[in-house]
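step: validate -> pass
step: tokenize input -> pass
step: predict -> running
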Amino acid sequence: MSPRQPITLYDVPCKLDPPAWSPNVWRTRFILNFKELPYVTQWVHYTDIQRVLPSAGVPPTRTSKPLYSVPAIIDIVEGEAPVMLADSPLIADYLEQTYPERSIYPGGRDAHLQCVEKVIQHVNNKIAFMVIPHVERILEGGDREYYLSTREMKFGVPLGKMFPVEKQEAMWADLMTSLTELSAYIDGIRKGEKWLFGTTDDPSYADFVLGGALIWFKLGGPEGGWDKLRAWHEGRWERHLENLESYMQIS
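step: predict -> pass
step: emit ->
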């Protein structure tokens, strides 16, 4: 099965070229590129998301007090009603079920999601407070103000206390320890030389989740942070991003 027309992928831009930076949207973009599904990116500023997505029929990611977020997709399949979805895990499951060729869940979905949880635990959760206070430098205007104010509200921590000078050395050490643990886990399950979580030939959803997190850190993390991280573990994390370049097209 293939889409009747290109899938619409909603993403929020930054001021860099190319403008894709969101780790969660990168998860979806990697899947679309990997499965060779035609799509077009609809860029939506943070300040417009709460208006644009409901107008397009995309459901909220939080229903109690409706909140709309990216990534979101609209997929029109011949003979079926249009599918509107938001939230990267839901989108991943939908794309896998609807377009199963080249699976993103080697070994089965439930087993593979254990790898995804390892990535989130050892990478995303560790770098979040290192990145969030610095993302402002790649955003502009209303997007910048919206992002900073909502992050403080979401995490309940002032931006200045997320990565304070007096805690930076300890946070870097904690990240190193966490990535060392993840590296050991990968060595215990790895099936090939190229991909950390995939098969011998193809990457997997966990590879994409890790790739999105590394892009986020590289573009929005602390100054000089990527130069430090990419040298760790004999360049394993930098090589991972290099291997994913084949799936980094922005349509």
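step: describe -> The chain has two domains: 7-98, 109-247.
step: cleanup -> pass
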